[in-house]
């Protein structure tokens, strides 16, 4: 038996799990040796069996619960973090300088990445930059191959660590890539890429905020990256929603703009180049806003519930 943890190489302690990284010694050793946890887990005491029944998410949640310093403090952070950041974002929206600052620093990176992610899933090469995303004129081979390789790696890691979350996410992304790359025409794909700035940007904003509830054994929690992610996600989410709810109330607020270099805004491009009506433009963005609000509410409720369950399992 090794004197150190097979996963983080910290000195081995009594008990089945490493107090430093939360890894199960037997599973970590099997993964290091075979690439997969194939050995039988040791029989857990009655208290651990009861705990396993509480955490419905599975063994991964049991292991990450061991690295949380204070479950009660973590619970209140999970309750307050997302609503507090959203309220700060709404406060910034009340001032012209706040809207400009929030859009420049928080919304634009998420917006341009939304264009790029949509392009990659549709089979187009794309490079997100400040204020513009450079997209290739035609579908190619490199972008679809890179996306497929990344998803395949996600599925492999999900299989290796027996993670239902990774396996589900990988399966959804693989299906999306198949539909968007092989199932739609290039003209339709280009309209989706244009819409993806705000449409997929909203999804990315939710993922950034939702990351607050995950990765307790990673740098998201240990290095406090989650606070930066939730701030970026909340700011972008509020700004994008504000744009389209205002446009719904007053059509003159639809962002129909042209830059000095002649480049049209996404809204103007969707109407002029792809034939969307103003009503369709606003309604489709509002539908994306509503769907993402519902998804955020579900993620928030799940994350708070998991944090509360940890307080019951670990005094």
Structure description:
By secondary structure, the protein is mainly alpha-helical. The chain has one domain. Helices cover 67% and strands 2% of the residues. The chain contains 12 helices and 2 strands, in the order H-H-H-H-H-E-E-H-H-H-H-H-H-H. A two-stranded antiparallel ribbon has the order 1-2. Helix 5 packs across helix 8 (186-210), helix 5 packs across helix 10 (225-249) and helix 8 (186-210) runs parallel beside helix 12. It is globular and about 65 Å long. The two termini are 31 Å apart. Mean pLDDT is 86; it is low at 39-65.
Average residue pLDDT: 86
- N→C terminal distance: 31 Å
Order of helices and strands: HHHHHEEHHHHHHH
Secondary structure: number of strands:
2
Number of helical regions: 12
Total separate domains: 1
Low-confidence stretches: 39-65
Beta percentage is: under 5%
Q: What helical percentage do the residues reach?
A: 55-70%
Radius of gyration, whole Å: 23 Å
Overall morphology: globular
Strand order of the largest sheet: 1-2
Report the structural category: mainly alpha
**Biggest sheet overview:** 2 strands, antiparallel
